[in-house]
Design brief:
It comes from Plantibacter elymi (nom. nud.). This is Two component transcriptional regulator, LuxR family. InterPro entries: CheY-like_superfamily, NreC/VraR/RcsB-like_REC, Sig_transdc_resp-reg_C-effctor, Sig_transdc_resp-reg_receiver, Tscrpt_reg_LuxR_C, WalR-like. Keywords: DNA-binding, Phosphoprotein, Transcription, Transcription regulation. This protein is 55% helix and 13% strand. Helix 4 runs parallel beside helix 5, helix 9 packs across helix 11 and helix 9 crosses helix 12. The chain is globular. It starts with a helix and ends with a helix.
Length: 229
């Protein structure tokens, strides 16, 4: 198995694979291995092993199956992020993988801090792009899953009133918040609001801080949970 320090030294993104199907892990490992900027630093077949693997190898990105024996992906996600916070180190970016378009387990994993949601049958190029995207600090949700995510929150019980921290957003920040919640990229928001991308990035960072959300996935969840879109 590749030493994670070698991956770091080479500048490659260190990735951990967590899935109870060895054949699936093997396919993803081969795909990642074909990319010079990506490197698999470890594998786990259940959530408990994933927690141990994350502590030992400190991957930058984790591809996490939702449904596994011993400990599922939701609990593993919560534990891994909590332990990273306790150490004071950088949190790994966790991308949830599932065979379902969207179910409560996947939605819960997103609330728990996962940075993305992908279907296992996603195109290889999309999976590779997703890894690079979350590593860069952004979030990803597959297009079909995005629609399902929106429907999931639309079908949920009546949304509670938005918390006070939403009221602290400026008028401009609310406009940008709503555009981001609908899935627009920074460049699209910049065009819609007649702003530079740098300005949009600054606004997005302030919105994250004020709403106490980690990324765009969390922002979408916040918006739909509170009936804001």
């Amino acid at each position: 198995m590749t030493d994670p320090s070698d991956a770091t030294a080479a500048g490659a993104i260190a990735i951990a694979l967590v899935d109870d199907q060895a054949l699936f892990r093997g396919g993803i490992r081969m795909l990642i291995g074909s990319q010079p900027d990506l490197r698999v630093v470890g594998e786990a077949s259940d959530g408990r092993q994933a927690v141990e693997l994350a502590a030992r190898t400190r991957p930058q990105v984790i591809l996490m199956d939702v449904r596994m024996p011993v400990m599922d992906g939701i609990e593993a996600t919560k534990t891994i992020l909590a332990e990273a916070d306790a150490r004071g180190g950088e949190r790994p970016r966790i991308v949830v993988l599932t065979t379902f378009d969207l179910d409560e387990a996947a939605a819960t994993a997103i609330r728990a801090g996962a940075s993305g949601f992908l279907l296992k049958d996603a195109e290889p190029e999309f999976l590779l792009a997703a890894i690079r995207t979350v590593h860069a600090g952004n979030a990803v949700i597959a297009a079909s899953a995005t629609r399902e995510l929106f429907e999931h929150f639309q079908q949920a019980p009546a949304a509670p009133a938005a918390p006070q921290r939403y009221a602290e957003l400026t008028a401009r920040e609310r406009e940008i918040f709503l555009l981001a919640a609908r899935g627009l990229s920074n460049s699209e928001i910049a065009a819609a609001e007649f702003l530079s991308e740098a300005t949009v990035k600054t606004h997005i960072s302030r919105i994250f801080a004020k709403l106490e959300v980690r990324d765009r996935v969390q922002l979408v969840v916040f918006a739909f949970e509170h009936g804001l879109v």
